[in-house]
Amino acid sequence: MSSSRVVVERFDSKLLKGNPLRDHSEREISIYLPPDYEANRKYPIVYGLVGFGGTGRMIYNVDPFVEDLQAKMDRLIESGKCGPMIIAMVDCFTRLGGSQYVNSSAVGRYEDYITDEIVPFVESRFHCGRRGIWGKSSGGFGAMILGMKHPDVFSALADHSGDAGFELCYIQDFPVALKLFREAGGPKAWLDNYWKKPNRKLSDDFAALDALAMSACYSPNPNSPHMGIDFPFDLQTGEWKDDVWARWKEWDPVRLVERYAENLKKLRLIYIDCGTKDEFNLQWGARTLHEKLSRMEIKHHYEEFDDGHMNITYRYDASLPKLYEALAE
């Protein structure tokens, strides 16, 4: 058996050119090709979305404590637990730490970038069959959103610990963000200072970055003086803004499942899991999704496991074989 390969392609996006954050339009796509890849055979393909603060290539990094994706897929295929398939890891990182894989006037057209540019680009170079989309955390959110909105593009989705149940997973970061924004003289000044720091992984800074990024994705406003973003709290007093929060809720998967019920019924697999000790309280959103999908009689696979949010790539052992099974011709 020949070895698997990870091929790194570069793609210069027309849709990301001139984006509001001036992020690079040229990105890498890291593509896993299974052992004995043959040019005359079609393989199921899964597009992978990483969590907030990550890039697609990170999942292939060598870590002595964590099995990288290439080694994981090789093991699953060799053991017979999963068939051979292609995995394309997408890079949608931004100066705000992420894009949530949606279109936003404050961030860029990352949903269209994936569906209209990346998918055709990858599949013009490799022999691909049915498509799935798969991710963890913000990537799980992206997989759920793109899967439910585009069943004509993706035939299956897998959502590991994805953002959902916004009241319980996001609001806890807002007081920290508000404090840091005020001290810095506003969100833009805080962001400029953040990128000058030698250590950008302090917990308070990460909470502020997350609140800034989510506001940019869920409540952009080209007319706002604050980076083209409306925040769900007043930047001086902290007063809650119900009208802005209502726009956030329009992106919450637990509220979208009813709207996209007919699309979800078209999918060959909806996989959802979450740890019972998730540090961002995402188990509540996952449970709500499970309950609503069950009530609407939409077939899906749901699991909870005894762990938190971090270092759970071992859970891919459960989702990747199911994606292959759903996508295989």
Topology:
Layout: E1 5-12, E2 26-33, E3 43-49, H1 69-78, E4 86-89, E5 103-104, E6 108-109, H2 110-125, E7 128-136, H3 138-149, E8 156-160, H4 166-169, H5 174-184, H6 187-194, H7 203-218, H8 242-249, H9 253-256, H10 261-265, E9 269-275, H11 282-295, E10 301-305, H12 316-327
Parallel strand pairs: 3-4, 3-7, 7-8, 8-9, 9-10
Antiparallel strand pairs: 1-2, 2-4, 5-6
User: What is the CATH topology assignment of the largest domain?
Assistant: Rossmann fold
Helix content: 25-40%
Distance between the termini: 22 Å
Strand arrangement in the largest pleated sheet: 1-2-4-3-7-8-9-10
CATH-wise, what's the superfamily of the largest domain?
A: Alpha/Beta hydrolase fold, catalytic domain
CATH architecture of the largest domain: 3-Layer(aba) Sandwich
Based on secondary structure, the structural category is alpha/beta
Radius of gyration in whole Å, from Cα? 19 Å
- Spans of at least 5 consecutive residues whose pLDDT stays below 50 are none
Number of strand segments: 10
Shape: globular
Biggest sheet details: 8 strands, mixed
Number of helices: 12
- Total count of domains: 2
What is the CATH level 1 assignment of the largest domain?
A: Alpha Beta
Topology order in helix (H) and strand (E) letters: EEEHEEEHEHEHHHHHHHEHEH
